[in-house]
Each structure stands twice: as structure tokens, then as C-alpha cells.
Amino acid sequence: MVEYYNGEEVVEFITKCPVDGCDNNEDIHWVHSGCGEKEYINSDGKIICSKCGDRTSIFDQKFKCQKHGDYKQPISFSRLIESFLNLGKLRTINSQIFLAKLVSNLSEQCLNY
Question: I need a surface site. Which of 29, 50, 68, 74 has the fewest CB within 10 A?
């Protein structure tokens, strides 16, 4: 479901692990390592902490899941998009528009990484 955080559209950041080579296919409710609060993603691909407001590009974010014990960055754009399968379950028109904007914006941004 699309929500609003400080006036911008966001969705709760629940995805499969986006790290290239990780075989964790469980949906993960990502939390900010700094304060432990849940994270959101906006349509520009910024990960936003719901408590402290920390904002990080998904390309600069590091992820740690139960399959790999250290923090790693996503390397593969295709794995990153694949990890959004849970976000793809968003059923409302607004959610589908949000997901289309996110994928489009990330496609453009990946050319810079």
C-alpha cells in the first residue's frame, strides 16, 4: 500500500534480499541498522528510516540477511528488480503506478553506478 512520509509517496520496504548471488527468497521487512526501525522506499529508490529519517540510495545501501552475515551492496540490477517481487504484489492502481515509477527511476540511475 502506498503511504505518505513527510509528504512523499513511499511503500514499506519489504523485499527479497537484493544482494547479487544471495539465494534468500524470503520476503524481508527491512529495518535501519542504526536505530532498528522499519524502512520505506520512495519512487526515486531512496530507502528512508521511519524513525531517524536517514535517506540512502538503494545503490548505496548495504544489506544483511540471514543467508550472509555481513553487509553487502546489491551489484546486479536484475537481482535488485527481482527482489521487488513483493512490491509487485501491490494491487491498487496507485501502487502499480508507484512501482512503475520506481523501476523507471532505478533503470536511469543504474547507468550512473
Answer: 29
Q: How many residues does the chain have?
A: 113
Predicted pLDDT at 86: 66
- Per-residue CA distances from 1 to 56, 57, 80 (Å): 21, 21, 20
pLDDT averaged per 10 residues, the chain (length 113): 85 88 88 92 92 91 90 81 69 78 84 67
HEC string of the chain? CCEEECCEEEEECEECCCCCCCCCCCCEECECCCCCCEEEEECCCEEEECCCCCEEECCCCCEEECCEEEEECCCCHHHHHHHCCCHHHCCCHHHHHHHHHHHHHHHHHHCCC
Q: How far, in whole angstroms, is CA 29 from its chain's centroid? A: 10
Bridge partner residues of 72 (DSSP): 63
Give the range of the structural domain holding residue 8, as residue numbers without chain letter: 3-110
